Amino acid sequence: MSIQSQNTIVFTKFLTKLFLPSFCINCKKETPEEPASVRWLCFNCHKFLTSRWVKSSLLPEINETYHLFDYQKDILAQKLIHAFKYGLVKEISEIFAVVLEKERLALKKLNFDVIAPIPLHSRKLKERGFNQSYLITQKIAAITQKEIANNVLIRKVHRRPQAEIKKRAEREKNIQNIFSCAKPDLIKGKTILLVDDVATTGATLKECARVLKTSGAAKVISFTLAQD
User: Cα 212 to chain center, whole Å?
Assistant: First the structure.
């Protein structure tokens, strides 16, 4: 790594500490800067983030879908996901990495070939600076030792965020035909694990599954941190 790159990293960390003071989202107490997994949720409050492995389905597109939190009932998880997704706090991925580590056995039992994160449009990715679904995917890949099919799905159209739309029919219409499969050879005949942060109506997951199956995937299952 060049000296210039090292200096950039140091300066970025300095700005982060300056403008994002370190405190626990739950109890508001000051926390240490390191490790990242306790910067936004103190060690004591980690015990209140209780995951529950839940299996359901989004038939006919997705036979099996899994999640860990109820977005409406698990308020702490909701706060963390909101800060992760809309507050642009990338380090919260380290908190969820701890949660996923606790679910290691359940994750390793999933039967799939490759993992595909739900993509952001290039414009949104530039604004946010990271894809939260990809960060979740990285931890799952580390646990399961499965390949990440990154950029196999492309979000080719930028539209109104699904979170701003309440009606199911409007959500399904808004998400139609905005994805394409850029690497069909990578998924042909395989079972794909789709990964996202939150599933509300499941419209995004189902549309991605439809595109993957049309492009040759044999089966699609999904995992989200929470279900709304």
Answer: 18
